[in-house]
Amino acid sequence: MSGTDQPRTRLTPPEGATPPVRHPDAPAPGELLGAHYDGCFGCGTGQPHGLHLEARAGDGVSITAEFTVKAAHQGAPGLAHGGVLATALDETLGSLNWLLRVIAVTGRLETDFLAPVPLGTVLHIEARVTAVHGRKIYSTAVGRIGAPDGPVAVRAQAVFVEVKVDHFIDNGRTEEIQAAMADPDQVKRARAFEVNP
Ligand SMILES: CCCCC/C=C\C/C=C\C/C=C\C/C=C\CCCC(=O)SCCNC(=O)CCNC(=O)[C@H](O)C(C)(C)COP(=O)(O)OP(=O)(O)OC[C@H]1O[C@@H](n2cnc3c(N)ncnc32)[C@H](O)[C@@H]1OP(=O)(O)O
């Protein structure tokens, strides 16, 4: 790789990175987070074939989540599609930002697939922020088959990049943005981001 083929940033935090700070108003450990947007493929209830991933706050800046592999999520017959598994990890990692009260998008996501995940499996995911450096948030996730201490099937390392709410307003389609703004819970959440940076 050379020039523009190089990744923007390494997955290991640079010198000067600091430990993440859990926001004082973050949901208590064990609390269900709920969907951040009804139309989200990862967590939204309005997506019939979505992942319907359920995330809970953990201790520190960590999240646990469960995702059940359904027929619509197959790649090979009877096995979860790798991209769908990466999505489940991405969604769980994205939920971590709610504990920091920061809005951030995935900049880089590296996934290791260690074991196939059969249809019907409940994938138990745990994700954690390891460090913060400027707008960059470094995090890791692991997905286990069948139980929180089950065999490891997937792992990920990620860098999320903090953005302003304008990122969504400027880049999203007007129709969906207006619908999201009309959802009282979304407005509350967007406000919370803006008054509690
Ligand atoms: C209106 C109602 C809406 C309400 C919304 C309210 C709340 C929303 C709540 C939650 C929604 C949030 C997420 C959804 C949750 C889960 C879903 C899973 C997450 C995703 O699925 S999300 C979709 C996929 N994701 C993208 O769609 C990103 C596309 N992309 C961009 O939008 C830009 O590319 C961006 C913003 C990433 C950067 O652009 P930029 O211009 O702002 O930043 P800039 O270039 O200045 O870089 C600043 C520092 O970040 C480093 N950096 C930059 N890019 C990097 C990269 N790719 N990898 C590693 N490091 C990177 C630089 O190296 C520099 O580091 P340093 O400061 O050390 O030099």
UniProtKB/TrEMBL annotation:
Residues 1-29 are annotated as: Disordered. Signal peptide: none annotated. It comes from the Bacteria. It is an enzyme of class 3 (hydrolase). It is a peripheral membrane protein. SUPFAM superfamilies: Thioesterase/thiol ester dehydrase-isomerase (SSF54637). Its EC number is 3.1.2.2. One of its GO terms (biological process) is fatty acid metabolic process. GO terms for cellular component: cytoplasm; membrane. It is found in: Cell projection, Ruffle membrane; Cytoplasm; Membrane. This is Acyl-coenzyme A thioesterase THEM4. It comes from Streptomyces noursei (Streptomyces albulus). The lineage of its organism: Bacteria, Bacillati, Actinomycetota, Actinomycetes, Kitasatosporales.
